[in-house]
Amino acid sequence: MKIKPPRQAQEWSSSSHRESIGKAISSPGIRSNKKTHINCGSSARMAGNVCANVDQIRSEGPWNNITINGAYLTNLPRELLRSMAGFPTYARFFYLARAALNPPTSLCKKLFPAIGE
């Protein structure tokens, strides 16, 4: 049995990438004028959610301050928002003690009358 060598990676042209992304997002009916950079905003925001600072996020793409703050990140103070939500601001710590509480059944039934069905 002859074993084939692994295929060498080939560079994907910008137009092929844009066309493939366009087909993938239009197939389920998603409309977007962004094709090649469609995931940049969400990936930058996800990095911010796990406490990466702006300099770390910027190093992952060729973004200047105007681009990263205007197009990819919100201008909301993430540390302040984490603190107001009850999370510590110093680490990737997202456990909330209040989320482990089980509300009384009587309260659940008032909020969700069909809960027993």
Descriptive notes:
- There is one protein chain.
- With 117 residues, the protein is mainly α.
- The protein has a domain at 39-111.
- It has six helices and no strands.
- The longest helix has 13 residues, at 14-26.
- It is extended.
- 3% of the residues are buried.
- The model has no long low-confidence stretch (mean pLDDT 78).
What structural class is derived from the secondary structure elements? mainly alpha
The number of strands is 0
Overall geometric form: extended
Number of helices: 6
* Sheet with most strands: none
Helix content: 40-55%
Radius of gyration using CA atoms only: 22 Å
Mean of residue pLDDT? Answer: 78
List SSEs in N-to-C order: HHHHHH
How large is the share of residues in beta strands? under 5%
SSE blueprint and pairings:
Elements: H1 14-26, H2 40-49, H3 54-58, H4 65-72, H5 78-84, H6 105-111
